[in-house]
Amino acid sequence: MKAYIDVERCKGCGLCIENCPRGAIALTQHMNTGGYVYAAVETKKCVGCGICYTVCPDGAFSILNEGGDD
Question: What pTM did the predictor assign?
């Protein structure tokens, strides 16, 4: 299981970054179409705990099998 982010829903609030116990999430230097700098998941560090999914106020995260299936 890994976390995946819908960059178009991300508003760069940083709650996922602050709460990730593995330090697997960071802000990028890129903007989405809404003009927000968005977060990205380093999948090698992610253990699929789901904390990012839980704390994200914009519903930008999904926790999926590594193959992309839920």
Answer: 0.88
Q: Is 60 exceeded by the pLDDT of residue 57?
A: yes
Within a domain: 69: no
Closest CA to 17 of 9, 26, 5: 26
Number of domains forming the structure of the chain: 1
Of 38, 41, 13, which Cα lies nearest the Cα of 25? 41
Q: Which two tokens stand for residue 18?
A: 């602050």
How confident is the model at residue 64, as a pLDDT? 93
Which CATH number fits the domain that encloses residue 13?
Answer: 3.30.70.3270
Q: What is the DSSP string of the chain?
A: -EEEE-TTT-----HHHHH-TT--EEEEEEE-TTS-EEEEE-TTT-----HHHHH-TT--EEEE-TTS--
Average pLDDT over residues 5-14: 98
